[in-house]
Structure formats: C-alpha cells, structure tokens
Amino acid sequence: MKARHLLTTLAVAALTLGSGAAYAQTKMKIGFSQVGSESGWRAAETKVSKIEADKRGVDLRISDAQQKQENQIRAVRSFITQGVDAIFIAPVVATGWDAVLKEAKDAKIPVVLLDRAIDTKDDTLYLTAVTSDTVYEGKVAGEWLAKETGGKCNVVELQGTVGSSPAINRKKGFDDVVAANPGMKIVRTQSGDFTRTKGKEVMESFIKAEGGGKNICAVYAHNDDMAIGAIQAIKEAGLKPGKDIKVVSIDGVPDIFKAMADGEANATVELTPNMAGPALDALMAYKKDGTAPKKWIQTSSKLFLPDTAKAEYDQRKDMY
Ligand code: AHR
To answer: Of all protein residues, whose CA lies closest to atom 7 belonging to ligand 1?
Structure first.
C-alpha cells in the first residue's frame, strides 16, 4: 500500500515536472544585444526592457556590447547557438550587419532593431525596427534654437557615436535648419561619443578655440549626457550655461530636466526609453499568427522646455 502510494506520488511529481519543463519550453527566449551603458537614456532603456519582458513572461537575455560592434556580432552568433526565439539589437553603428543578420535569417530567428537603424539593401534581414525619427529630432532642436535666437547663432555641435544612425540623422535634421537660416552657423563640430565625459572634454576644447566661449551662442548636443558634460565645462570656464551659452539636446533624461529647472539648460527633445514594449508586442503577434508588423514602428519625439522641467523631473527621477 505504502509502496503504491510512493509510486503514485512519484508519477504525479514526474507529471508536474514534465509540465514545468513544457512551460519552460514555451516561455519565449529573446537575446538582446545592447549597445552598452554610455548614457542615462541607455541605462533607462535596459531597465525598461527588463520590465517589459517580465510583464509578458519573456526570458530576456541581455548582452552588453560595451559600444563595440564586434561584441554585438559575437553576441548575435551566441544567441543563434542558444536557439533563442528572437533577437533584439540596438546597433551601435549603422553599417556592417548583413552577414550576421543573414545567419540569423538562415536559422529562422527574427531580428528586431531597437532605437537605432541600419544601412542595408535587404530589409528582409530584420522583422521590424522600433525607433524614433532621428532626423526629425535634430530638426526640432534646430527649429527651437532658430526661433529662440532670431535665426542668428554660432553653434558648437557635440555629435553622437561616429557611424551611429542617431548621430548621422540628428546632424542632418539640424543642418537642414541651419541651411535655411543664413545667420546660423555651426562653428565647431566633433563627436563626444554620447558620453558625459567626452561631451565635457570636447566642450572644453570648443571653448578654448572660440575665445574662451565668447564666440559661442549655443551648444547642440546629440544627447542629454553630452549636454550635461558641456554644462560642466561652461561653468568651469566661468560662464553661465543656459544664458551665456544656450544648451539644447535630445533624450529627456531626469538630469537634463533638473538642469532646465535650475536654468542651466534650455530645451530637450524626448526619446522614449520604452522601445522593447512595442517590439515585444509586434514580435508576439508575429509569432502567434504570422501578423507582419510595419517595417518601421515609430516612437514619438516631443520638445520640452523649462516651464515644465521641475514637474517632469519629479515625475521621472525614480523611473530612470
Ligand atoms: O540610440 C539612442 C541614443 O543612444 C540616445 O539618444 C543616446 O543617449 C544613446 O546613447
């Protein structure tokens, strides 16, 4: 009797384990090759991606590429070997993806691009791209500055990572506005690699080269972190950021709202850190019944000014 009871218990346990294993197999596994942790926005995107994956019961495996494409390519190959159900990539640069994406395609693993675009002639290499319109972001920043300065301004520009789609496009959008305003000029432009430290270093060199900052009307930074670095450099040069030199940038992280509330920055164009949510929804619909998503899922971009900065800071400070 006791032996029979033990056998029944073992059988039930085996069945339970069996269904657990089956559950584990049905839990979607996604590999995410993330750029790195170069900015506050990037850290927020990583955090939000985990939250969005957890909400949907997805096993999200994040690999930090430390801003190197070769690390991303290695990570994608490793995800293919692991047999994941899909791969997310935030591509550090725009070119050089075709070969590895072809490997993912041959393995029948859909790829979704997050927050940055790639240059390819073959758009069947990825399922969809979830990004903002980065040319538009540059245009919004430029138009704000043109209006603010009556179309007369010597601008220094801190570009993002060389070869990355947001650096290329944010430059283009801003350049178009400069071209339409004869009194606006980009007097210096250089990459600050989307980081605070390099943003500060490059701004220091701009200030030195431009009469101790006196010839500079504004700094346009391709992200808020470089703008924060620039603010530090402006202060150390004995000038007032936001007044002597205007500061306009992109992202909408809490620190820039704090700087705006303190009168040290003038405008930012928001980029949502929630790229993973729309990506997961599109992917799940695709996996469920083959619904093909749009090739570009566009997130919105919005200009923020100092009048709402304090409220925005209070609302965002714990989310990031
Ligand atoms: O690709 C998005 C950009 O990458 C963000 O604007 C920047 O902060 C990040 O490093």
So the answer is: 223
Assigned CATH for 134-271+304-316:
3.40.50.2300
Q: Could you tell me if 293 and 286 are in contact, meaning their C-beta atoms sit under 8 angstroms apart?
A: yes
pTM, full prediction: 0.92
Q: Where in the chain is the domain with CATH 3.40.50.2300?
A: 28-132+273-289, 134-271+304-316
As for ligand 1, residues whose beta carbon falls within 6 Å of it are 38-39, 41-42, 115-116, 166, 194, 223, 225, 250-251, 271
Residue among 223, 226, 269 whose CB has most ligand 1 atoms within 8 A, to mutate: 223
Closest CA to 44 of 248, 192, 252: 252
User: Can you say how many angstroms the Cα of residue 184 is from the centroid of all Cα atoms in its chain?
Assistant: 28
Class (C level, CATH) for 28-132+273-289: alpha beta
Q: What tens digit of pLDDT does each residue of 196-246 get?
A: 999 999 999 999 999 999 999 999 999 999 999 999 999 999 999 999 999
Atom index in ligand 1 nearest the CA of residue 194 equals 10
